[in-house]
Amino acid sequence: MSERFANDVAICCENLSRRYGEVEALKPLNLTVPAGSIFGFLGRNGAGKTTAIRLLTGLARPTTGAAWIAGVETTQPDSGARHTFGYLPQDPAFYNWMTPIEYLDYVGRLFQMEDDDRRRRIGEMIELVGLEDAQRRTIGGFSGGMVQRLGIAQALLHRPPVLLLDEPTSALDPAGRYAVLDLIHKLRGEVTVFLSSHILGDVERVCDTIGIIREGELLLVAGRDELLDRYTENVISLEVDQVSVPGMAPLAATLEQETWVVAAAVDGSHMRVTVNDVARAKQALLPLIVEHGLVLTRYEWVRPSLEEVFLALSA
Question: 150: closest CA among 139, 165, 161, 141?
Answer without folding.
Answer: 139
